[in-house]
């Protein structure tokens, strides 16, 4: 029973993360990031936090699939091969999706999972070391390679993405979710996946640690913004997603820890409700919903709004933030019912089934 509660909380967190990605991605191409209205700022609350939670949970999922106390050498090799096959599947699928949606995250997942396959059976303390290493290495690379290399930040296009040098740089250093430092979220998620979430002490400690990290960064930002006029320091402390400087990494980790602990905690009180189980099914199909919202969801919003989709930022005739929020909610409801109906006949979502058929 305790295992079931933990899984329900995990899937509820994934459902929340995918809803946040709906909001962020629909707003990215149909909204206006220069809009300073309260409604637009409300949507930006999901910016960064949804993607980072998504990666944390992916790391947890990888750890959970290898969470027995002992494995034979043959079993370890088999699981490593499964993870590597899934990594290759996501890498190729993500590259195909990137032709339509340049900010794809799936091919980066392929990179995270390749590293995960090498370290997944190590003691969980090494996952923390890998997290710290990823963050430190990224900041060292900042010294030698200007972060803006390859970027046109006016349109958010990566100019030399489909060259060998550009693709390598984008994948490992300054892409949307590049290996460094974003691997840190994945390996931290692997550490979280090794914890016993049936224990309330784990939930409380994770929430407290997350809160301390997050509010410490918020306090630091307030102080620096109030008293400093150093342009570089202000840019560093207030950076948001691009580039993912240390304050951004720590604040999003803090929020992620609090959210995961929250969903794990509340799951034991609500897990028997049918609507909760169906939301959990939506969380189990995040790969499918991620792909569908960037294709079907974008095309549908394009048709409804009359604004043509373009991978380049276009602030002409933006959709009102409240309408984007409403569309995101409606699209999530449709995703909920799709998951509910699909789940009556199949255990996994369409793309989850395809990935398993390739990797198992």
UniProtKB/TrEMBL annotation:
Keywords: Membrane, Transmembrane, Transmembrane helix
Stretches assigned to the DUF418 domain: 202-358
Organism superkingdom: Bacteria
Membrane-crossing segments per the record: 12-30, 42-63, 83-100, 106-122, 127-147, 179-195, 207-224, 244-266, 287-306, 318-338
Keyword match Isomerase: no
One Pfam family of this chain: DUF418
UniProt-listed InterPro entries: Bact_Transport_Assoc (IPR052529), DUF418 (IPR007349)
Presence of the UniProt keyword Transmembrane helix in the record: yes
PANTHER family: HYPOTHETICAL MEMBRANE SPANNING PROTEIN, INNER MEMBRANE PROTEIN
Name recorded for this polypeptide: Putative membrane protein YeiB
